[in-house]
Amino acid sequence: IDAKNKKFEIVAINNSSLQSDVEIVDGKGLYQEQLMQCFVELQSHSNDSLAVYYKFDWFDGDGFKLADQPWQYHKFFGNEHWQAVGTAPAPKGEKAKFMLRRRSTDDRENQ
Hints:
Elements (H helix, E strand, L loop, with lengths): L15 H6 E11 L2 E10 L5 E10 L12 E5 L4 E7 L7 E8 L9
Antiparallel strand pairs: 1-2, 2-5, 3-4, 3-6
């Protein structure tokens, strides 16, 4: 997500099982009080509850990662439409990368 140039590129979910259950519908970025804020719309296609983790990585104008953000938990209920929201940790944030994955069986990976 590039708020400065108003660009959003959807990169395919590279887990075919997750991709059939959750769709990235849209994404938007804007500046709120000098901090980049991103919104990613997701749609569950599962009739069952689905536990996922997501995070935003933030980059400056030169492509350097600003800070390591922790994975956040979300539980989708059957066929839920939901919006993930993230805010850059510093005013230097110009681009964001949104990542989504299933809950890991290794709890250390879920932190």
